[in-house]
Amino acid sequence: MKEKSSEYKLLSGLFFKLLPYQILLLIITSINGIVDSLYASNKVGEDAMTAIGLFGPLNHFLYAASIMFVGGSQVLYGRYLARDRKKINHLFTVTLVVSGVLSLLTSLLLVVGVYTGATSILISDPTNLSALNDYILGQAVGIPALILGQQLFSFMSLENRRKWTMTASILCFLVNVVCDQLFIVACRWHTFGLGLATSVSEWVFFAVLAAYYIMGKSEWRFSLRSCDWHDSFQITKLGYSGALSRFVEMFRCLIVNFLILKYVGSAGISSFAASNSVMALFWPIPFGMVAVARMLFSISLGEEDRKSLVDVMKIVMTKGMLLVLAVVAGLMIFAKPLTSMFFHDPFDPVFDFTVWGFRLLPLCMPLSVLSLSFVPYAQAAEKKIVSVLLPIVDGVVGVVVCSFFLIPPMQMNGLYLSNILNGVICAALIFVSSWISIKHPPKNMEDLMAIPEQIGVGPDERIDISVTSEEEVLAVSRQVSEFCTRHGIDGKRAFFSSLCMEEMAGNIVQHGFTKDKKKHSVDIRVVHKDDDIILRIRDNCIAFNPADRYEVSEDDVARNIGIRLVYGVAKNVDYQSLLGMNVLTIRL
Question: What is the CATH architecture of 460-587?
Fold first, then answer.
């Protein structure tokens, strides 16, 4: 038996199983951005690239709104899944209604801003302003689909519907490419065509995901009759801190764009837009890791599982970090070829600005992994000060303060260096806040996370065991019995606890391990809390709900005796299929 490594491997395997699909959603959006930038720079002109750069702050607002609903609903999802599964249906409807209303209002305000001339606060040059207004009008058409599509993708990810979400993402990309060619080259709609192409692709993405729910394939249903509108306040309360970074980035972009225009000029905006469009192709890796970590954090907190919280953070900071470092090296090495995709004259200042963007900006990615990962953890654990302060510093304060001092003397390199220094400031903030919380310098990951004491139980009140073969099941039974005895549990419950574990773990090994040729393990946790013994059994075999066998065998006393015995002696037996894992919780 392996007491620690197997469960970590299971979580690690699950993390990297989910990661590609989260990256795919983000990377399709990023590829769309690169395609748009290539069409803008090669088919329209520099004013189109400037329009894309100036639209950046508005993009941050849209994603901030989307992340607020995604993050808040995922935290509630984890809680309801562990405690009251029926409430998830209410949560699903409330999330779609509230995010849909917000997206429609945002589209309307953008259109009003264009026709009232309010967008002139972003830039005064008539040519660039006209291009920006056209781009905004094209983008406004797709905002409802963008935000609603993100919500549906989040719920489908939690249901482990990876193939469906992949299909929607690929179609989104293909439609965007076709529409760019049609609207820009054939119809000559210029920057309006750029924005409209993105909008059409977002509607296709949303339609494919919505079809899954319309066809009744999901457990969750859209129903206004059964809504608990209090969930909307809970979603906002739990999700705003995760969205805060993106929201304040809107103001950061406005300030940074002002500094670039003042000290560098429109060439600086164009170079920053070009380097950002390629960087956006790789930012989905850390953002995808954060999305997966948020799901796992939410579920671990719903189960009050301290160890899994730490394991998930370790996976991000070790295996995930290595992946990010490989990306950083590649971007720095290929800085000039990447620049040549957008600008062809190496003697043009915009070319040199962009090259240095690819050489310096990637260095902020590893540092960002730390702050990006700590925000959803602090959000789910309701560590209010850190969950608010860190996004504000990361989103605006660090970059803006450094930019005020560095852009005037160093021009674009000052901006790139400011992004790197921002990561250093955020890492220091995390370390200091943990030091204050635990009252000594953090020495390991659990110290750095400063997990609240009320979450779960300490190591003395639990045992973690992993089983990989049938021979190990009996030894687990003995360990469970000894654990119960050490904690003063009466002999009857100690006996039934070991018997339940032997029956259920043995059943998984005998039947679940043999259904395919994959390598499996049963990860067991025994917890003593409030004079209860809680047995949690987690495996990565095919989905199997023992309640189905229990209900079938009620009229046949000779069938499924072990399962019937467990249901007969336990206070409560709860089965959940979480992100492709079977999780069985037995309380005695």
Answer: 2-Layer Sandwich (3.30)
